[in-house]
Input
Amino acid sequence: MKKVILRKIVRSNWKGQDREVYFSETKNKIEGRNGIGKTSINKAFCWLLTGYTDSVNVRNHELFDNKKSISPDTPEAVVSAVLDIDGAEVKLERHAIASFVRKRGSNEYVKSASDTYKLCIDDIEVSTTSFNEYMVNVFGSIENLPFMVMGDKFANLSISDKNKARKVLESIIDVITSADMKGDYSSIQTDIDKYGIDVLTERYKN
Output
């Protein structure tokens, strides 16, 4: 897995919003009144990387401005981001294009059940397979990526299936061994003396 720093995220007609947000390398705090789009920044970033906006409902919905009727003239919904990946800047982009099909036996067009998507890396259009391969190269696992960028998705898994959540976490950060434990752990000696190493190990696992 590589070191990834989010530099900028841009939403164009995504859920009816056109906004740019810049991030610093240190901690970033996003605040403001309800309804101004704080949550949608996270949803846009999740959609860009995984294709999903919601950790619970996996269906993409309301990618366009839900206050307007969707028509063949509806602008593309686009999310792009500039990432610093191990010191090199990369631009990722995902487009959603409203799709329509002609109604059989007429010249009337109706909304298709699914939309059309376009993916770009550094402004070059790539296939879904190539985009996913790039995600694997950066993040390590396309299956675990939603758990990595959607905190509530991992939290829900931790509640519903603790063993699976542990395996997901281990596959992301690898198994922690004694060689990784550098520092002063004398504070847990009292618990070791009181409960024993086996009991304490099980408690820490849980």
